[in-house]
Design a protein that fits this description.
By secondary structure, this protein is an alpha/beta fold. It has five helices and six strands. It has a six-stranded parallel sheet, sandwiched between helices. It is globular and about 50 Å long.
Length: 172
């Protein structure tokens, strides 16, 4: 994010969380049901709801995160620039609000091909250099959201999924 490039492949973390789960679904309803089931399982395993975050690319996809919270029987806290008490509430928000936060479990959802990278940003590009910069900033935004998870990470989207899924699938 600060302009410095780093290669984090093969970096060893001091935490020993589970392998990230990467899932694609046929439609948004199926995704919502499965992510809600994942949230319920995480809570059943002893993680408090305030230690769970759900991130989407932008505010346009927030309704999908709200649906997950409802299906999981949780009260959502929509993240914003205001500091609020997360106690007892599932945090949901756009990826750009993830920086500086940490959760035991994170779901990064609504990662479709036309959403991540942002099609709206790509359509405003004037040249190849600018397109490369858009892709890199979108990839970093996705990376920041994913690295908010300390122990468990679920990444999901509806087919066709984001090309950024390849970053996770290559590691397996």
């Amino acid at each position: 994010m600060d302009g410095n490039e780093e290669n984090r492949r093969n970096v060893i973390s001091v935490f020993n969380g589970l392998e990230p789960e990467v899932k694609t679904f046929d439609d948004v309803s199926q995704e919502a049901e499965e992510v809600a089931a994942w949230v319920r399982k995480v809570i059943e395993d002893g993680i408090n709801s305030e230690e769970i975050g759900i991130f989407v690319r932008s505010n346009s996809e927030l309704s999908r995160a709200r649906k997950v919270a409802t299906l999981a029987g949780q009260t959502p806290l929509e993240l914003s620039n205001r500091v609020e008490d997360r106690d007892g509430r599932l945090s949901i928000g756009a990826m750009h609000l993830a920086k500086g936060l940490e959760f035991q479990a994170v779901a990064v959802m609504a990662c479709e091909d036309n959403i991540l990278p942002s099609q709206a940003r790509i359509e405003t590009v004037a040249d190849e250099d600018e397109l490369d910069e858009v892709y890199e900033t979108e990839r970093r935004l996705f990376y920041v959201a994913c690295t908010r998870a300390r122990d468990r990470l679920l990444i999901s989207g509806v087919k066709p999924e984001s090309e950024f899924f390849e970053d996770f699938l290559e590691r397996r």
